[in-house]
Structures are given as structure tokens and as C-alpha cells.
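[Q] Does anyone have a clean C-alpha cell version of this?
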Amino acid sequence: MLEELKKQVYEANMLLPKHGLVTFTWGNVSGIDRESGLFAIKPSGVEYDLLTPDDMVIVDLNGNVVEGKYRPSSDTATHVEIYKAFPNVGGVVHTHSSYATSWAQAGRSIPCYGTTHADYYYGEVPCLRCLTGEEIDEAYELNTGRLIVEEFAAMNKDPKAVSAVLCRNHGPFTWGKDAVDAVHSAVVLEEVAKMAYRCELINPKVQPAPQVLQDKHYYRKHGAGAYYGQNGN
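[A] Here you go.
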């Protein structure tokens, strides 16, 4: 079932260790087939060098396993909530990459200090509030997803314009048009987090980049009149 999707999601998962975003099994990628409403996701706790495309688990949008010999990622319920709320999302990634997770553990959003950040994310990458004890005990992963969705709505953030979030004391989630695109956002987020950290070390009084510069860089890639790259890319 969905053999091509499983292959794509497997290949996207293998990009995480390639780009240094995971240690041991600390991460997962999923990708959805919107027509069927099913998605493929990495199995829980299986070493990356042991994975095959057939090991990807097929799950529905109620969180039920449809196909697979393994249990799906423990973060599956978070992926479900993102897919349900953000219809343009085709892939979701969760990692514990060092720099992005450091910002999450510090409880800080990542300000837009320069054009690298602005090329990919419109404004800061938000760090969410802590889950309450009740939310954690009741349904931790489900409520993590619900919090992401609720906070983006409350902040009036477009998930297409900011394809990343920091879950406080936990780590980052990113998303994209498909699984590989979601990994791309995860790689960019880690680099942006690293740059922002170093930036504050060099200049503790640094301020976000001027809004006009942020707008220029974001919209030249993503706006109606975008001119970055080649036609059709």
C-alpha cells in the first residue's frame, strides 16, 4: 500500500542523519497522501541504519495504523493534528537537533536577525508555551499538536510562511509541501538557530533585521512577484 509514498518518506528520514539533525533515533519524518487521507511515518525507536522503505508505517488521520509491522513514531498524534489543521502540508518532521532544541529548551523564539532567516521564514520562529500538567498527562503528543495549531491561529501566523515551530522544553517541528521539503525546513531551521545563537554571543544587544529588509528577502522568494531562482522551480 502506498509503496511510492513509503519510499519517499524512507528517503526523507535518511536525510536526517545525513544532515546531522538526529542522534540515535531522536527524530522522525512523515508524508501524507491527501487523496487517501493516509500518511507514512517512521517506526518508533528503530535505528536509521536498519530502516527500509517497507518499515514505514501507514496511519490514518484518526491515528489508526492501517499497515505496518512496527508501531509508528511516538510523535504520530502530533503529526496527525498538523495534517488535519494545515491542509497544504504534505510532510512533517520532528528532530532534537542541537541548536533549535537549545532555543526550545531556553523557551525563546528565534528572532529574524538576517536575510538567511528571512529567505525562509516570515518573522520569528515561535517558541510555544509549556503544556500544562493536565495536557501532558491526558494526551501528551495529541496536545502538542493541538497547541501548535492553536498558537498559530492565535498569533495569526501562516503555516506556509513560517514552516517551523519550537515546542518549549522539547524541540522543533517543521513541515513542507512533502516529506523532503519538510526536511529542508528542518535543515534551514537548525542553521538559522545556530546563526542566531552566535549572533547574540557576538553582540548581546543585537536587534532583529529591519522589517523592510526582511520583507524584501521573504517576498523575492515567496511573493506574487518572486524572482529568486528559475521559472518553474
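[Q] Thanks! Anything notable?
[A] The domain at 3-222 is CATH 3.40.225.10 (L-fuculose-1-phosphate Aldolase).
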